[in-house]
């Protein structure tokens, strides 16, 4: 399988995987109970951890939405053979995975002992997604580099010297008389 097909499959995988995790994050329950709201998270003294825990759903929805847009741009750039979009995708996926991993690490430390399996589930999902994304990134960068090299060689070919005689000047003159004879 060539790098273009592999990159295209990577873009489809990224879109589907992001939608899957967006559904998981949007439907995650942080409070249990109807009248007595019982939180699955412990109280923390750190402002950063409490802010991330409070806005975890919003952070993940924002990151996922940006990832869906970047992945769509990535597929379009594969279609039109634009290497800049592939590099932007590579940089965003690295940023997205590191931010998501940071959120998972910050929130997994605040999960109560009764829900420790949830902490392991979040870590397994995050690490497996990171492995899949980071495994495919070298193929994307290899394809982007091959597009860059092709563009560079095409620009060198385009700069060849022009002939002093124009191709239009080398055409034989066609007058009305020759057109009249050809039509009859």
Fold blueprint:
Layout: H1 3-26, E1 31-32, E2 38-39, H2 47-54, H3 56-80, H4 83-108, H5 116-158, H6 176-183
Antiparallel strand pairs: 1-2
Helix pairs in contact: 1-3, 1-5, 3-4, 4-5
Describe the protein:
- By secondary structure, the chain is an all-alpha fold.
- It contains 6 helices and 2 strands; from the N terminus they run αββααααα.
- It has helices at residues 3-26, 47-54, 56-80, 83-108, 116-158, 176-183; strands at residues 31-32, 38-39.
- A two-stranded antiparallel ribbon has the order 1-2.
- Strand 1 (31-32) and strand 2 (38-39) form a beta hairpin.
- Helix 1 runs antiparallel to helix 3 (56-80), helix 3 (56-80) packs antiparallel against helix 4 and helix 4 runs antiparallel to helix 5 (116-158).
- The chain starts with a helix and ends with a helix.
- The mean pLDDT is 79.
User: What profile does the largest beta sheet have?
Assistant: 2 strands, antiparallel
What sort of overall outline do the alpha carbons produce when their principal axes are compared? elongated
SSE run: HEEHHHHH
> What is the mean pLDDT?
79
């Amino acid at each position: 399988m060539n790098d273009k097909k592999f990159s295209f499959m990577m873009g489809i995988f990224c879109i589907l995987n992001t939608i899957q995790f967006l559904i998981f994050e949007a439907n995650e329950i942080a409070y249990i109970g109807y009248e007595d709201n019982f939180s699955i998270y412990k109280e923390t003294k750190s402002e950063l951890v409490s802010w991330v825990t409070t806005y975890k759903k919003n952070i993940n929805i924002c990151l996922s939405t940006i990832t869906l847009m970047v992945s769509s741009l990535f597929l379009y750039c594969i279609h039109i053979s634009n290497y800049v979009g592939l590099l932007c995708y590579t940089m965003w996926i690295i940023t997205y995975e590191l931010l998501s991993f940071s959120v998972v690490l910050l929130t997994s430390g605040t999960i109560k002992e009764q829900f420790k399996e949830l902490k392991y589930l979040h870590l397994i999902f995050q690490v497996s997604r990171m492995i899949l994304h980071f495994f495919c990134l070298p193929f994307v960068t290899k394809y982007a580099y091959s597009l860059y090299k092709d563009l560079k060689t095409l620009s060198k070919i385009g700069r060849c010297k022009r002939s002093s005689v124009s191709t239009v000047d080398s055409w034989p003159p066609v007058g009305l008389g020759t057109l009249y004879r050809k039509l009859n």
